[in-house]
Amino acid sequence: MPEVKRFIFDDVPLFHNAVFKHTPGASPVLLFLNKDDETVQKVELSGLTRDDCNNLLLKKGFYKKSSEDAEVPEKYRNGPYVEKEEL
């Protein structure tokens, strides 16, 4: 699970509209929320690689910035995001 930890601490901060919330003792999961903050999909991360985790968010249409303070293009600032068939 070291790759998932690197994803959480190094990569999640680069994704626009992605937030890490620590839950002690819980396995890492990725929750996709709708505009009303209701969970629409839950993905267990413990069996994934860092690349798998990154590709999952990219495929879901999330924007990954080059640095934490980089500008986010207008089309990515608000959802809903459109799932991509290919990266």
Write up what this structure looks like.
The structure is a single chain. The protein has 87 residues and is an alpha+beta fold. It has helices at residues 2-11, 50-59, and strands at residues 29-33, 39-44. A hairpin with a 5-residue loop joins β1 and β2. α1 (2-11) packs across α2 (50-59). The radius of gyration is 13 Å and the shape is globular. It starts with a helix and ends in a 28-residue tail after the last helix. Pfam families: Sep15_SelM. Residues 66-87 are annotated as: Disordered.
In brief, what are we looking at here?
This protein has 87 residues and is α+β, with helices and mostly antiparallel strands.
Q: What is the CATH architecture annotation?
A: 3-Layer(aba) Sandwich
CATH superfamily heading: Sep15/SelM thioredoxin-like domain, active-site redox motif
Termini separation (Å)?
Answer: 24 Å
**Quick one: biggest sheet?**
2 strands, antiparallel
Rg computed from alpha carbons, rounded to a whole number of angstroms: 13 Å
- Report the portion of residues in β strands: 5-15%
Number of strands: 2
Keywords: Selenocysteine, Signal
Organism: Ridgeia piscesae
GO molecular function: oxidoreductase activity
Protein name: Selenoprotein M
